[in-house]
Amino acid sequence: MKGNGLGTIQAPFATLKDTFETVPSHIGFNIEVKYPMLDEAEDANIPLYSFELNRFVDRILQEVYDHDQTHPDRNIIFSSFHPDICLLLNMKQPNYPVFFLTDGGTSVMADRRCNSIQSAVRFATSIDLLGIVTASQPIIEAPNLVKGIKETGLLVFTYGADNNDIENAKLQRRHGVDAVIVDCVLAVRKGLQQAD
After folding, report:
1. Model's pTM, two decimal places?
2. Range of the domain at 61
3. Distance between CA atoms of residues 65 and 95, nearest Å
4. Which domain of life does the UniProt lineage start with (predicted)?
5. Is residue 88 within 8 Å of residue 53, measured between CB atoms?
6. How many domains does the chain have?
7. pLDDT, tens digit, for every residue of 69-120?
């Protein structure tokens, strides 16, 4: 069967509710909230009035609250590359940690809060987020960045294909990265356990 693609929807997308009902409640969720930045919307010809941010965030939070009524034991965190989504998620609820996703300065964005790890840290601390999730490449190239980030009180997570290399995961762990997001979970976990 062919997967969904631009102009070829083969099957309905799973909803957050469907996913909550399917995945066992002992498995936590990192709910990454996707919403285009203004420059991204313009580049993709998406109408800027397509969906109001407050309503968008409220709908997601309502689904999470509804689920929490029957499964209060599930661990949930929120993350987003969109700084205003992070701000709204953090202001509208006190129960779930919010992380600001950043590509760590590996590409230029119109919103200056998104253009570097330093900008991401400044933004995350200014609105009292729990941490940042950055592309791993800058951390691997300059692992001492982790110390400076952690001195602000933020947690540091990383993502990216480079994290599937066990040596990169070990390097980040040695320098205090709190979580390394990987695709090859079993292989990286095994490699880290062997290092212990």
Report:
1. 0.89
2. 30-195
3. 10
4. Eukaryota
5. yes
6. 1
7. 999 999 999 999 999 999 999 999 999 999 999 999 888 888 889 889 999 9
